[in-house]
Amino acid sequence: MLDIYGTLGPRCADRETLAAMFAAGMSGVRLNLSHVTLPHAAGEIENLHAAAADAGKTAQLLIDMQGPELRVGALDAPLPMENGALVTLGAGGIPVPTLILPALAPGQQVLLDDGKLLLELVAAGPESATARVLRGGLLQSRKSIALPGLKLRPPAMTTTDLENIRLAKAYGVTAVMQPFVRDRQDLETVRAALDAAGGRDIRLFAKIENLDGVAHLPELIPACDEIVIARGDLGNAMALWELPRVQKEIAAACREAGRPFMVVTQMLASMERSPVPTRAEVSDIFNAVLDGAASVMVTGETAVGAYPVEVIRYLANTASEACAYLGR
Hints:
- This protein is an alpha/beta fold.
- The chain contains eleven helices and 16 strands.
- The protein has an eight-stranded parallel β-barrel with strand order 1-2-3-12-13-14-15-16, surrounded by five helices. It has a six-stranded antiparallel beta sheet with strand order 4-11-7-8-9-6, with no helix packed on it. Strands 5-10 form a two-stranded antiparallel sheet.
- Strand 8 (117-124) and strand 9 (128-135) form a beta hairpin.
- The longest helix has 19 residues, at 308-326.
- 44% of the residues are buried.
């Protein structure tokens, strides 16, 4: 049976909406812990389990950890960034992780918010750096940072991650999604933390979203319960036209090894604003299932989009049609 996942957020956090999403075919949700903790989301999680019971189901709850991902810190307000403008990273400007600054040099590109914004360094120092905006937009707190070609190794888990792992069992977590997996050691670190917290039955999903993860895929597949082809940041790590080939290669490796895999990111992105998807989007979902995906997931489409129930309906019905075509 193919799993259909939404993402929990303000547009689908109430019991009635979640129940309608389960009725439309949803298996469970992802909770992004880059922005909240399990205790902070306690009310929404309670609604999730109640809504699943209303629909005669048991909710799957996937928590997406902070992990080694680099993110912008807290901003006082969303920051408009105009093309050609100069911005400061670090002291006196946009807050960034301290391990970034010593590694920066003029010419280094900086991708923010899954690549929506693009900067290029013009000057760098030990406490701050100056960058020119090449592709502007509105920057909000806690958005992702990608530094193409730069090798940094933050710890696999943050202090907050470890606390969420400790509480996972009590909140009904069924799987942990480890982002930016670099090698088998990352997965072993998370698995050990889960086991120590009494979560031996909680599944471990490895998100492939950087080139290290792609390169080490053969050692990652046996060390997790499911591979996640996370096309957002993976698409920042390479030319976008290379991404479909890499997706196909990961899918083929998982099929050969008998390891389930998930496809995620922008599957129904247009439905954040539209009640119907594009033809390309439903074809993308259909082809992901034909490639052997065990699950598909949407993110902002349900978390902040205007039509969370319709999103799940299109996702589930398209996946079901693909399964029927395959005789699954």
